[in-house]
């Protein structure tokens, strides 16, 4: 029986810097602490440069140069693991492989028989709604369909945690909205922990049980906003709009307008190129 704690994440006083040369370094994450319950859907939202994608890289194990602790089910992460799947903004499908074989790539080190692999692949193709397109190649798929294949591939090894780095950022608004609904359905079906990084506040609120609002220079958590509404959610729910508008205030800055006063007062003193 699966433990109810499978997929929990604990981040303690995480700091991350990039060294430019011996005397100076650029701090990108500052004292990040966050507890994520197993099966929770967490949205991390922030403007460009707040370190949200860097945080995701640390969670997946692509970078081990940091201060602090990252624990998954109480154990410190040690490099990448099949227990932590990831989906990037770019679907990264192999153009010479069809949908079935693009997903099969994730099973290269699997001990499953070919028959077992095929059954598992079919289940995940059905999960993302692409059964009719399983023989198609990436060039024959839309951007949204390609991202569905990427999601299926990331789930094929039954990870405890799925990390998503702006997975719908390159898609048009209608496709993006449809895939958000699909992701919500998949999360409810798979019952695993999901963490999405996005700059889209509406997306963060629509999907997340909690929204982690980050601010830049260096990246740090400004506040964590609970979204205590049941799934599946309806985008038109005024309660979602109220939470979204509240979070948007964290990114609004009042700028004072100033007229530029020229220092040259005599028009004849200007020099022109003609």
TrEMBL record:
PROSITE patterns: ABC_TRANSPORTER_1 (PS00211), ABC_TRANSPORTER_2 (PS50893)
UniProt-listed InterPro entries: AAA+_ATPase (IPR003593), ABC_transporter-like_ATP-bd (IPR003439), ABC_transporter-like_CS (IPR017871), ABC_transporter_ATP-bind (IPR050166), P-loop_NTPase (IPR027417)
Origin superkingdom: Bacteria
Keywords: ATP-binding, Nucleotide-binding, Transport
Gene Ontology molecular function terms on file: ATP binding; ATP hydrolysis activity
Residue stretches making up the ABC transporter domain: 9-241
Claim: Transmembrane helix is one of the keywords in the record: no
Keyword Disulfide bond: no
Family classification: Belongs to the ABC transporter superfamily.
Protein name: ABC transporter domain-containing protein
Organism: Acinetobacter tjernbergiae DSM 14971 = CIP 107465
């Amino acid at each position: 029986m699966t433990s109810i704690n499978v997929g929990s994440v604990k981040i303690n006083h995480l700091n991350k810097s990039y060294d430019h040369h011996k005397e100076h370094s650029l701090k990108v994450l500052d004292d990040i602490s966050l507890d994520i319950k197993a099966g929770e859907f967490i949205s991390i939202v922030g403007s460009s440069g707040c370190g949200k994608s860097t945080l995701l890289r640390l969670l997946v194990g692509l970078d081990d140069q940091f201060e602090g602790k990252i624990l998954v089910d109480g154990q410190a992460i040690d490099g990448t693991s099949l227990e932590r799947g990831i989906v990037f903004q770019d679907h990264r499908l192999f153009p010479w492989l069809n949908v079935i074989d693009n997903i099969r790539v994730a099973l290269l080190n699997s001990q499953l028989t070919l028959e077992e692999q095929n059954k598992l692949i079919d289940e995940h193709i059905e999960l993302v709604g692409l059964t009719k397109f399983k023989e198609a190649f990436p060039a024959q798929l839309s951007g949204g369909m390609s991202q569905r294949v990427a999601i299926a591939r990331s789930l094929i090894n039954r990870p405890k945690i799925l990390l998503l780095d702006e997975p719908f950022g390159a898609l048009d608004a209608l496709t993006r909205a449809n895939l958000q609904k699909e992701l919500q359905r998949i999360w409810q079906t798979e019952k695993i922990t999901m963490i999405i990084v996005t700059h889209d506040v509406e997306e963060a609120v629509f999907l997340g049980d909690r929204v982690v609002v980050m601010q830049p220079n260096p990246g740090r958590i400004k506040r964590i906003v609970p979204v205590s509404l049941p799934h599946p959610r309806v985008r038109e729910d005024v309660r979602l709009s109220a939470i979204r508008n509240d979070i948007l205030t964290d990114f609004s800055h009042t700028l004072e307008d100033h007229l530029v006063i020229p220092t040259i007062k005599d028009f004849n003193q200007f020099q022109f190129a003609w």
